[in-house]
Amino acid sequence: GLAKLLRKQFGKYNVILSDIRKPPAHVYQSGPFIFSDILDYKNLCEIVVNNRISWLIHYSALLSAVGEANVSLARDVNITGLHNVLDVATEHGLRLFIPSTIGAFGPMSPRNPNPDLCIQRPRTIYEVSKVHAELMGEYYHHRYGLDFRCLRYPGIISADSQPGGGTTAEYVILSHLYLSFQIVSVLFLVADSWPMVFDDSNARSDWGWKHNYGLPELIQTMLNFTGSNFRMLRAN
Ligand SMILES: NC(=O)c1ccc[n+]([C@@H]2O[C@H](COP(=O)([O-])OP(=O)(O)OC[C@H]3O[C@@H](n4cnc5c(N)ncnc54)[C@H](O)[C@@H]3O)[C@@H](O)[C@H]2O)c1
Ligand SMILES: *[C@@H]1O[C@H](CO)[C@@H](O)[C@H](O)[C@H]1NC(C)=O
Ligand SMILES: *[C@@H]1O[C@H](CO)[C@@H](O)[C@H](O)[C@H]1NC(C)=O
């Protein structure tokens, strides 16, 4: 979904997608796609040099379901992978974007509202690794001048793909099972420890962030997304 927007803006052949897994056919047809293992540092350098890469958007990760079964592999992919992209970006003067999560807080952080800068002492390995990523990016910026950008994503609901494996994705799947008024309580149950309200005033004033979807539109979109199953259940 993101590549589609970037290609519209920068040209089809100026955006190269990569993964260690084969994508569906329509992804191949939409522009360049190559194999790249985030753990293979030399190969990352090769790709950057051979294609004159100037921006790197880093999304590789091993999701929880797989990660729980193999914690050390998840740590490699998530954390060594992060170190590799920081190094390759610094070495070759790339601009680097890495997503964090709205879960990068913890029981000691203020939740209502939740400011950009506050104490962050989360208690899951995923969230701890994201705080590590935020701080490493800042460190590389101060130490080496790396152009590092980061956003704390909420659960991504995409028109292009099925939900992956995060907490927020699960409530979309759960809504196959529940009627509309119950979806909301599932959502709050799962996200109970997360911030309640974000103070987004810096984003609004610094880079013109504004939302297109309020809560009613979000719920309606989710219902539309799961629409056919939802109606089927009600008919039964
Ligand atoms: N999806 C969300 O709601 C959400 C919310 C907050 C943050 N994020 C962050 O966004 C990023 C991407 O999440 P996603 O939901 O797109 O995950 P995803 O699982 O859909 O994508 C991760 C990709 O990484 C690939 N990968 C695994 N091992 C690799 C390796 N060794 N080398 C290269 N690629 C490898 C996987 O094949 C997969 O396609 C993650 O950092 C995640 O923490 C996502
Ligand atoms: C790795 O990242 C994925 C999603 O980005 C997360 O679900 C998983 O818990 C993480 N594992 C570790 C060990 O950081
Ligand atoms: C949901 O679907 C209905 C009926 O197809 C449509 O009119 C409406 O615009 C959709 N709403 C959203 C937020 O996508």
TrEMBL record:
Q: GO terms for molecular function, please?
A: L-threonine 3-dehydrogenase activity
According to its UniProt entry, one GO biological process term is: L-threonine catabolic process
Name all NAD-dependent epimerase/dehydratase domain ranges: 13-160
State the similarity comment: Belongs to the NAD(P)-dependent epimerase/dehydratase family.
Q: What is this protein called?
A: L-threonine 3-dehydrogenase, mitochondrial-like
**Organism (species):** Sinocyclocheilus rhinocerous
Q: What is the lineage of its organism?
A: Eukaryota, Metazoa, Chordata, Craniata, Vertebrata
Q: Which gene encodes it?
A: LOC107717226
